[in-house]
Design a protein that fits this description.
There is one protein chain. The chain has 157 residues and is α+β, with helices and mostly antiparallel strands. It has a single domain (43-152), classed as OB fold (Dihydrolipoamide Acetyltransferase, E2P). The protein is 24% helix and 33% strand. The relative contact order is 0.17.
Length: 157
C-alpha cells in the first residue's frame, strides 16, 4: 500500500477532529458516565427542577447515581453532572443540599440506547455552590476529595 500525503490544510483539519474535550483540571466527574448525545434534537421545553434534601449517598449500577432524600416525596436518583458536583456531594454526605436537576436525553447502551435520565446540573449547600467550594480548596484538599470519592463512591462503598 502506498502512503497517502495530505495537503497541510487537510492534515490540520484531520488533526483538529481528533482533539478531546477539555476536562476540569484532570478531575473525572463521573468517569463511567455517558456524555449527552449532542445529535439528539433539543426538547422544546427542557424539564428542570430545583430540590432540597439530604444527600444520602451513591447508587452504583452501570453508572453512578446520587441519591437525595427529599421530604414529602420519593428519593431522587440522578446522575451527577460535571465535576466538581460529584466531589461536592460526596463531601456533603448526610447534609442538606439543594440541587438543580434537568431531565436530559442521552445514549445509555445498557438501557437500549437513547433514553431520558435525570442529571444534576448544579449543587449548593446553604449559599456555597459546588464551584465556589472547589475553588476554595487547596491543591492538597482537592486531591484528598478526589481520593475519598474514588475510594468510596467509585468503589461501591
Amino acid at each position: 500500500m502506498r502512503p497517502v500525503f495530505l495537503p497541510s490544510s487537510a492534515l490540520l483539519l484531520a488533526l483538529a477532529a481528533c482533539g478531546a474535550p477539555a476536562g476540569n483540571e484532570g478531575v473525572a466527574a463521573n468517569a463511567v458516565a455517558p456524555e449527552a448525545n449532542a445529535a439528539a434534537p433539543a426538547d422544546p421545553a427542557p424539564r428542570a427542577e430545583t430540590v432540597t434534601g439530604t444527600f444520602a449517598g451513591w447508587e452504583m449500577g452501570d453508572y453512578l447515581w446520587a441519591r437525595i432524600n427529599v421530604p414529602g416525596r420519593e428519593p431522587v436518583s440522578a446522575q451527577p453532572g460535571p465535576s466538581p458536583i460529584d466531589l461536592f456531594l460526596d463531601a456533603h454526605r448526610g447534609r442538606e443540599v439543594t440541587v438543580e436537576i434537568a431531565t436530559v436525553r442521552t445514549d445509555i447502551p445498557e438501557a437500549g440506547g437513547e433514553t431520558e435520565i435525570q442529571r444534576i446540573t448544579a449543587a449548593r449547600s446553604g449559599t456555597t455552590t459546588a464551584d465556589a467550594w472547589w475553588q476554595g480548596l487547596s491543591a492538597a484538599d482537592r486531591a484528598a476529595a478526589q481520593r475519598r470519592f474514588e475510594e468510596g463512591a467509585l468503589s461501591g462503598n
